[in-house]
Amino acid sequence: MTLHRERNVILALLLVLAAASWALLIWQSVMMNNQAMGLTMGMGAVLFLSIWVVMMVAMMFPTAAPMILMFARVQRDKRHNGRAFVPTWVFVSAYLLLWTLFGVLAYGGAVWAERLGQQVPWLMANAARIGGSLFVLAGLYQFTPLKRSCLAKCRTPLDFVLSSWRDGYTGSFRMGLEHGVYCLGCCWLLFVIFFPLGMMNVAAMAVVTLLIFAEKSLLPGQRIARLAALALIAYGALVVLVPGVLPTMRVPM
What we know:
It is a single chain. 80% of the residues lie in helices and 0% in strands. By secondary structure, it is mainly alpha-helical. The chain has one domain (3-245). The model is unreliable at 249-253 (pLDDT under 50).
């Protein structure tokens, strides 16, 4: 298989998986439309994590495609030269595992917040304002050195390969985890804001996916990240002042 054809096959597979995941998310969103809201939307751990993994495939595979294709290209060259190589799925599985572990933490935090909200009336009464504060926090994070450093790593797959390459299955799995850490450091607060918006808010997922893709892949990505920061801060401040502009949750935080 030629390099061009192999690249197209991998890219097509990533896009098909992402498209199927988007279709499943839209269907699930429609099915849950009339159910109780809240941070976990009444979902148990297994269902929440299953939907979370589908979200990660839908949202993160397209944005991680340049790095995955770069890894596949290097491994293809090694195989072509008769050297030991590692299948691309090893790198991808480590990347997805890290985001799944983040989903475990997110679910645990959401359950804890829901229980705390039931015990502290002030939290229930100010759920929307707390959600607005999360938007402000997500916007401020966009300006931090950690965000810039992680975004720089995500924007330059070749630099990551040159500086972090490791041979073998274990090394490739570790590379997937390492790149996942940079990706998580770049985007984690953009996923936290789904809790006040509603975990099955497909429109919000689409907007965040486009933002992450623009940050990572477009030439003015870092400028786009700063503009997004200003928008997040402005919207969050508006929610704090006028809580009604945030989609209402039947079960407050």
